[in-house]
Amino acid sequence: QDNRFQAIIAHAKEYGFVFPSSEIYDGLSAVYDYGPWGSELKKNIRDYWWKSMTQLHENIVGVDAAIFMHPTTWKASGHVDNFSDPMIDNKDSNKRYRVDHLIEAHAEKLALEGKKEEEYALLKAMDELIAKDDFTGLKQLIDDHKIVCTVSGTSNWTDIRQFNLMFKTEFGAIASDSPDDNIVYLRPETAQGIFVNFLNVQKTARMKIPFGIAQTGKAFRNEIVARQFIFRMREFEQMEMQFFVRPGTEGDWYKYWKQARLDWHLSLGIPADKYRYHDHVKLAHYAKEACDIEFEFPIGFKEVEGIHSRSDFDLTQHQLYSRKKQQYFDNEIDHATGKPYGNYVPYVIETSIGLDRMFLLILSHAYDEETITKEDGSSDSRVVLKIPPKLAPVKLAILPLLKKDGLPELARQLMDDCKQDFRCFYEEKDAIGKRYRRQDAIGTPFCVTIDHQTKEDGTVTIRERDSMQQRRIKLTDVRQEINRFM
Ligand code: ATP
User: Fold this and answer.
1) What superfamily does domain 2-68+187-362 belong to in CATH?
2) Residues 463, 445: contact at Cβ < 8 Å?
C-alpha cells in the first residue's frame, strides 16, 4: 500500500499534477503547488461541487469572503482558545509530533505485527486521555510503550504542550498601546466567513429558512505533519456549506445532508465499498451530531469530509461578541401555537470537504498500473488514470496519424470546433501508441485519430481510455459525442 502511495506521488509530479512548493529551494514542508493538469483537475472538482451545491439547490447561494477577518472573529469562534493540538518534541532530533499522530503510527506498527489487541488498547487509552486533556497520562502512555522517534530512534521526549494551529501575521501599522492589536490570523476554516455574512446574504438574496451558503477558498493550519503528501497540508482549500434551519428540525436536516453528501461522492462512479461513515462519539462542546465520510486512501480509511450539526453556537457567539443581533424572522405559522415562529437564531448543519483531499481521493481511485495482452500475444504495461470524464483535466486528445497529407489541417479544424466546449490537447509527435500512453497517464478519457480514411469518408477513430476500444465515428459527430460525458 505504501508503495502504491509513493507511486501515485511520483506520478503526480512526473505528469504535471502536483509539485512540492518552491522545489528549487528543496521545497516547503506540507505545502504544494498544482501543475498544468493538477490545476485543471482541481478546478473541475471545485466546479462539480459548486454546481451541485448552488446551481442544483435553489436555496443555496455562494459567497467569496476574504481570508483576513477581524481578529475578534476567532475569539468568538473559539479558535484562539481551543484550536490547538497537543504536541511533543523529541529532544535528540528536535522533531515535533502531534501526540495523536505519534501514537497512531505506533498503533499501526502493532497492527502490522499482528498485535491487534495491543493496538486496540493503545488507541482506546489515547482517546480517553485526549478527551480528558490529560497530558501527563498521554506522556506516560508514550513512555510505557517506548515509542521512538523515527528520525533519532530514541524515546527521549519533552513534556506535552498545546500548540495553536492558527498562523498569525501583522496587519499594517496601527498606533496602539498593545502590539497584539495588530495581529490578524490566516483563516483556519472558511466557515466563519459564512457566519459573519449570514444576515448580509439572507437579506440581499432574500433567502427563506431553510437555506444554505456555500464557499470555496484557502484555509491555513500550522499542522504538525507526518509526511502525507497533500492529505495534510499547511495551506489548503476547503469547500464548505452552512445550512441554516429552524431549531428543532436540525436532526432531520443532519440526516439529509449526511446522505446527500455520500450520494455526491457516489455520483462520480466510485464504488460504495470505498467509503464509510465514522460517527463521532466525542463531540465538540457545541455539536449535537457529527460524522466523517471516510475513504479508503492508499494509507487506509481516512476522513475526506465532515458533516456537523453545530446548533446555534456560531451565530450566538458572533451575536455575543459583536453585539449585533444574528436573528431571523420566520413568518411561517407554527401549527402547534397558531402563531408565526417569529425571531430566532437559526441552527446550522455544516458540510465541509477539503478540495486537496478530494483531489487525492480522485487520484488514488484513478491510478492504475495495467498489464495488457497485445494481439500477437505479447504483453505490455501502462499507467492509466481512470479519472471520471467530468473531472478529467483534458477531455479529448486530437491526434493526426501523420504530420503530412493534410491530416494536421483536418485535426486543427476539429480542435477549433471542440475547444469552445471543453479542454482539448493537440499532438502530432511520436508513434500513435506512445501518444495514447501519454494521454492515459494524464487521464484523458478520449483520443481521436485523424488518418487517410478521414479524408475519404469523413470518419475518425475514437479510442476510449479505460477499455482501450476503438471505433469509427463521423468527424462532425465528435464534439457532440464528447459533450455527452461532460
Ligand atoms: P483532521 O482530523 O484530518 O485534521 P479535521 O477534522 O480537523 O481534519 P475539519 O476541521 O472538519 O477537519 O475540516 C474539514 C475538512 O477539511 C476535512 O475533512 C479535510 O478534508 C479538510 N482538511 C482539514 N485539514 C486539512 C489539512 N491540513 N490539509 C488538507 N485538508 C484538510
Assistant:
1) Bira Bifunctional Protein; Domain 2 (3.30.930.10)
2) no
